[in-house]
Amino acid sequence: MEDPEAKGKKKRGRPGKQAPTSNKKPRKSPTDKAVGVARGRGKANGVAQHNGDGGDPVTLFEVVKLGKSAMQSVVDEWIESYKQDRDLALLDLINFFIQCSGCKGTVRIEMFRNMQNAEIIRKMTEEFDEDSGDYPLTMPGPMWKKFRYNFCEFISVLIRQCQYSIIYDEYMMDTVISLLTGLSDSQVRAFRHTSTLAAMKLMTALVNVALNLSIHQDNTQRQYEAERNKIAGKRANEKLELLLQKRKELQENQDEIENMMNSIFKGIFVHRYRDAIAEIRAICIEEIGVWMKMYSDAFLNDSYLKYVGWTLHDRQGEVRLKCLKALQNLYTNRELFPKLELFTNRFKDRIVSMTLDKEYDVAVEAIRLVTLILQGSEDALSNEDCENVYHLVYSAHRPVAVAAGEFLYGFQVQVFIQCLQNLPMYCLHEHAAYLVDSLWESSQELLKDWECMTELLLEEPVQGEEVLSDRQESALIELTVCTIRQAAEAHPPVGRGTGKRVLTAKERKTQIDDKNKLTEHFIMALPMLLSKYQADSEKVANLLQIPQYFDLDVYSAGRMEKHLDALLKQIRLVVEKHIETDVLEACSKTYSILCSEEYTIMNRVDIARSQLIDEMTDRFAHSVEELLQEAEEADDDDIYNVLSTLKRLTAFHNAHDLTRWDLFGNCYRLLKAGIEQGSMPEQIAVQALQCSHYSILWQLVKITEGAPSKDDLVALRRVVKSFLAVCQQCLSNVNTPVKEQAFMLLCDLLMIFSHQLISGGREGLQPLVFNPDSTLQNELLNFVLDHVFIDQDDESQKGDEEDEANKIEALHKRRNLLAAFCKLIIYDIVDMPAAADIFKHYMKYYNDYGDIIKETLSKTRQTDKILCAKTLILSLQQLFNELLQDQGPNLDRTSSHVSGIKELARRFALTFGLDQIKTREAVATLHKDGIEFAFKYQNPRGPEFPPINLAFLEVLSEFSSKLIRQDKKTVHSYLEKFMSESMSERREDVWLPLISYRNSLLTGGDEDHMSVTSGSSKIKVLWTVWLGYLPLVEGSWMMRNDTLQTPGALQTPQLTSTVLRENRPAEHMPDPDSEPGSENDFVHNPQMQMSWLGQDTIVEILEIMKVTVVCRRIFRRGLMEDDAEPIFEDVMMSSRGQLEDMNEEFEDTMVIDLPPSRNRRERAELRPDFFDSAAMIEDESVSKTLLLIAIKLLIKKLI
Description:
This protein is mainly α. Among the domains are: 382-497, no CATH class; 864-1002, no CATH class. It starts with 59 loop residues before the first helix and ends with a helix. GO terms for molecular function: chromatin binding. This is Cohesin subunit SA. Residues 233-263 form a coiled coil.
């Protein structure tokens, strides 16, 4: 097939063709196609009809839709009808395409005879049923999914059955291609979508025909060459003539097919591959991929590949996905790589970047494509490209990670250890677990080769041989533990996947087999590994995780008790050698697992554990006595002996009940001594606090599980009370770790021993309930304020710069402290007003603690709405008081500090939600407290000066939108009780907060009812004229505006007017001290304003107002109609040059996807009533913006 760009463009709607040869009849033109149509087949007007009694379907659409008949028989019947009367058969085929588009119209025989395709399509467009936006290709359900399959199969079978005769009659294919070309250019989405799918499937079928013709041509040519090369006596001239004639006929057929394909490609594909609809673009890209794979000699070249390359930049993931899958089919065939070399070099960077696509499905396919490229040519990708891909094994999305694992495994197996070399510094993120999960499916057998891993770890260094470095050994041990976990649990690590899924029977069997295999191996290998690496805390901590995945029955079933004794011996040695917390916790957990009562080895392990605890307890008691006796004279050895033993006991007390050893007594003695003497090392104090805490919890567990006596309750209460007192005293310790530990334990114990302890029928535990007094609550709150709400630079690090990891860890610790205290507030253990000091930091520390504070606010509101509202206003009052202390009584209301308080109030207001009825009482109480605070202190300079806290009303006005109209009047009445007569008449700037707050409480809360004397007189007059005459232009809309509210929306800054909307005689009465014609008369006398402006100015003002009103209506209508979608969509949506220019450079052409269009009826239903007040809130900010623009024009005109 020749290059589609080498031929001249054919007229759309007419497939291109070479000049007819002498032995072929000339092709009929569209005007000639009706000639000779004189007979029908019992069809009304040449259109197939249903049987009267609901018999079998007789149209192609119905047959294909039902799918009851095989496509082979359906096509054979159509071919027979075509042989009898080709016009009627083509008419049935045309109506098939029309009906498949969802159009109820029908093409009649008269239309087929006398009208061009464009006229027929226009007629069908007019008759298109717009009651539904769906059409067969987009309808959901299995029936329509099957219809799409049948539709594509019908076209494929039709061309296959007609490939030897009918498609060369210069009539059928011309008619079909012309019709599909016209439909594909329609603005009706259904026509365009259906015809494009049909044309692409038709093209695919023609490509198959062209491929068969090419094969036959090659075979004929070989036969001809073989016959011609024979000697003259054996050569058959007749056979040569037949072969020559056959070759000529095949070449003519090939040219005919090429003309058809060129017509489809140029008339449909080059326009539709950048259609506005993503589904249409996806169809084109999917089919061109089929053509290039099926007939690579003709299509696999840069002239066609560039369309796929350009579409890699498509905005819709569906289209990008089709591009990648089409390319995968090509790169799978190694023989095609030479033809793809230029394309690979040009678009390699784009494909690699798509591995980070926001659509996970696209990213997965991009990684698989990169894998195929690398397998075909190792030089195709640079090392940097490969690194960008195999780092995705750590992705949280499992399919992406698995695909990256396949790439990594196929790229370089040795890179495993290299990837793990950096794991120790990132062990908190468990990178190895994610890496193993990514590689599990592609290299499971390799990862489960535990014998090989153990051999590498136990191998002794031999001179001349390369051995693993210390870092590689750590990485391999971590890798081994992760593979054991993956095999034993058979589910991804935390954070990857949606949770534990139910395993199939096969997966369950594999899991059991793997668990038995690893148990049998590591029962013998683990003691040896611990013996070799017992000095390395990091390696030992990882190795001690292995027993938790054992099938412990193997010990007794396999008579392997000696290996258990060896393991217990090694664990004991590890406990005696290390004091690192992670190692000791791993040993404690291992003992806990081995001591499970369900296993027969429990007694043997329990004896070993008890012996170990006895020794450590005796050592601890002895070292404590020595330390307390020596007191300040204790040396480092004494301190180390106490600290090391206490760390071991604390780690074991976490997982084991050690109450019978009474560790609390010695720990309490240490703490009391430290408080009294003030010289206890901080690590000993921290460990003693933690160990005492565990002791109390284990005592509580024993009491709750049994039937405790009164003496037991009294004894535990005494212990808890004394420990709480010690913790409270530790809050004033000079060492920060001690204070933080004491704070966390206080919060935990107050939560545990709160009033919730007696819930669930446990009233007998009432003596154990503790309620913190006000002193303790204040100390806890002060600790939070001093240690949580601090800047990062304020932390006591002695000036040393912290790296990013330490900063994150410190932030994490502070968040834990805040969360612990907030839980006490939420569960009503600490009084809710204490939360005011927390809420006031919401904006300043939003990035660090915003989620915690917001959740606390939400939970406290559920507990008590009114008390929560009082707490919110209290937090704002505290911030306001702090501001007064800093700036004095003369606040700068434009400062950032005041704006910050107002913004915090606005955020608080948003948390009340949209249901004003539910929050009615709470909001009213908030306003009441706010008003009382604003008028609490009178100005010492006299009553003519505003109260000191009056500016707080400006903050309080942020909550006015949350009041219902009735409550606004009530709050306004309450406000007037605090106002004197002189206050209501004051208009100076210092009284603006009162004016603004009163305006927000008047009807609607968003109109201006008070005047301000500051500013230009001309501007005042302008406001008066504008607000006074606008209702004359717009009717009653402005008067209804007070009822329009958008709950929760940002409040637009209010405009101040010199005219009151309501009749208030006290405020409109002229000042007796003012002269006639003074500013007071001027402000309150519209006639004087009008005369001052002059007739010409008034006319200009009214004209501008009219224009503005029209703009507002047009703008609002435009915004409303933007949401309604057009019936017909733009077909071409390319902002670049014409992509049909085949000589241009490769470029990225983007298209924009539009949603399915709605019909006229839906649009009419969606268009709002512009006289309905509810429609006016669509975009009030735009309306106000236009008003401000008009006002600015007036100001410019007047000034």
